[in-house]
């Protein structure tokens, strides 16, 4: 099995290094290929997602990506984030899984990742009006809903579908299609909830939730809120899955260029993303469980550890 490694920018190479050290212990048979991506790739090729990198990603079994972004390119014509959006679209990784689990909190947000406001028509009119368009096709909603119900079957069998059906036409279609899909999953409970209420309920009554499914922008916001309930986005992993090709696995946090090279970045989210890759991308749940347990054991016992020391402790827990 071939895994394409995209180390990323800022602290990305540092946290990726520790995750790969652990990966070599739990899955030494994997073939790892490193390719440039993000700001690193812009400097090398002028493109944040070079064609060779994209081809390698498409030919792999999974893509393990570090955080990207660099202030140097924030206002540039070519930006690292453009490569990220293009990679998601090219791989058609429409199902973004954002688990938040610690203590009594155990939530899985399933976010539609390749449609909606972030991918709709946008522009500037002659009078200076700026617009971004939220668009969804019924088949896009159907496949993300189906993915959520399948995942719920392996958990506590409850799906909350989050929308803004009292205002948005896209949300009314979303609610209708999700309800139609639910008819094929009589063993899974479905509840519809408006997004503003869902945000409040996540804070006030977290235990009612099992799987939440929602569109791209709502999922972007709610998943960060859910991460704050379990330690913040610095500990949050993610998996983005397609129906046929490789998945994309990456931490939620940014590249933190202000602390890059200092050896203080926490590689926890990168390691948990690697565990998600083993579980959902390579169908190796036992290896994923070993890595996840070692990472959490280290996190709970090793407050204040630097990047390499955290990695050393995980390796010791795995031995």
CATH architecture of the largest domain: 3-Layer(aba) Sandwich
Number of strands: 12
Largest sheet: 10 strands, mixed
End-to-end Cα distance, whole Å, is 23 Å
Q: What is the CATH topology classification name of the largest domain?
A: Isopropylmalate Dehydrogenase
Give an account of the 3D structure.
With 319 residues, the protein is an alpha/beta fold. It is 44% helix and 19% strand. It has eleven helices and twelve strands. The chain has a ten-stranded mixed β-sheet with strand order 2-1-3-12-11-4-5-10-8-9, sandwiched between helices. The chain has a two-stranded antiparallel ribbon with strand order 6-7. The protein is globular. The mean pLDDT is 96.
Which key terms come to mind for this protein?
Isopropylmalate Dehydrogenase; ten-stranded mixed sheet; globular; two-stranded antiparallel ribbon; alpha/beta; 319 residues
